Amino acid sequence: MTPARRTTGLSRRHFALALPSALLASGCAAPHQGIGRPGDPIVLTLLSHYASGELKEALQGPVDEWNATHDLVKVRTKAVEFTDLLTTFMVRQAAGQGADIVHPYCLWNGQLVRAGVLRPAPSEHAEEITRGYGKAAVGSASVEGKIYGYPTEVQTYALYYNKRLLREAGVDGPPRTWRELEKTAYRTTRRDQYGNTLVQGFGLSTYDDSTTVGQTLALLNAAGGTFVSADGRTTAIDSPAGRAVFDLEHRLVVKGASAPGVNVYQAFPSGQVAMVVSAGWWTTSLKTLMGKDYRDVGVAPVPVPEADDKRATLSTGFMLGVNAACRHPREAWEFLRWLNTDRVRVKGATATRMSALQVSVGSLTGRADDMRTLLGQGGDPNLRPFLDALAYAVPEPNVPGAQQAKSLLRKNIEALWTGQQSVDEALRTTRRQVDQEVSRSW
């Protein structure tokens, strides 16, 4: 997911801490930001990508609550755009100016651990995380078996479909198997008299890493495959499951049911795509974009190759962790515990502050109990398949070279879709390039 895409342009509120910054003690900040005086409260900095709009407001609310109720420890938020977040973590750490609390995309965790940015969660926090979150969320927040933070936003992938387009093509409901998926894709594809595509049956898109790779890995997981081996040292894409996924996508493109050059984020809301695999964050955006036409949108689990196959899909996410260089780690972990485990009243129910935060912006956390409680109060039924998927989703690999491996996979998928590589060539090239990346010494 690219979080910036969720920013809706709502009016921005500006928040300021009540105490002047000159009176606040710095946590992990560089000395020139002030060391405070005896008796001054500790200030912990929290760096995230929640830089504007509803995301910024949603995070600032509980931070303001903490600051209003805690005299000895204050939290100050800082934010950069998602595209700059990883670089900011690495550069600031090297300069000795890393934030006390960081909010990374879990794909980067292996790299951040190797770079000395992340501190392992203390045992009591690790136990709480293991108890309170689903397996995929805990896996995303872990590196080599150690937990490094509290999962926050969790995204699972499912199949979006246009009920009207399926109905007009004589299809009763969403596909459950790959055979049904292909059949539905071909039946819903429409062209004009000149052969130009009016409606794609299944939307494959080269929009960005998270779109191109996310779609493919969700199908790969549904086929029982994985992108990276269990030991994290080789790719597992060149497998029967990987070949089946590449074959499926190749057929859809060659037969005209998919046009990868089209931006599905524009085409699906316009009724020009019948089906597409994407993450749950998109639901809220679709509701805003489509207005009354949103009633045509349905969501179903990612189809599996055969009817009796076990369900699986992709899970991605973010977490809040503590910097290895933080001078007040106990206080930082206590804030994270308060934010992510303490339960508060939310519209007649109880949930954690982070769960309430994520639901307020149309997202999920890895706390399935919170999600069922909050979504049961008149929530969008299209979010339920994403909630159900928390039980069977496979976390995105987060080995040290994961970001580069993801970019290499995208490059080869696009080469397959555009006819520059055959299925054999795409699998072989991906294996060679990704193996080189994930096996090198970091």
Description of the structure:
- α8 (209-222) crosses α9 and α8 packs across α16 (402-417).
- Mean pLDDT is 89; it is low at 1-27 and 29-36.
- It is built from 17 helices and 15 strands.
- The chain is globular.
- A hairpin with a 5-residue loop joins β8 (190-191) and β9.
- It is an alpha/beta fold and 442 residues long.
- The protein has helices at residues 53-69, 82-94, 109-114, 123-132, 135-140, 163-168, 178-188, 209-222, 240-254, 264-267, 282-290, 329-340, 353-360, 368-375, 384-389, 402-417, 423-439; strands at residues 25-26, 42-48, 73-79, 101-102, 142-143, 146-147, 150-162, 190-191, 197-202, 273-279, 297-300, 313-322, 343-346, 349-352, 393-395.
- Strands 1, 2, 3, 4, 7, 8, 9, 10, 11, 12 and 15 form an eleven-stranded mixed beta sheet that branches. Strands 5-6 form a two-stranded antiparallel sheet. A two-stranded antiparallel sheet has the order 13-14.
Describe the main β-sheet briefly: 11 strands, mixed
Mean pLDDT: 89
Question: Which percent range describes the beta-strand content?
Answer: 15-25%
Helix content: 40-55%
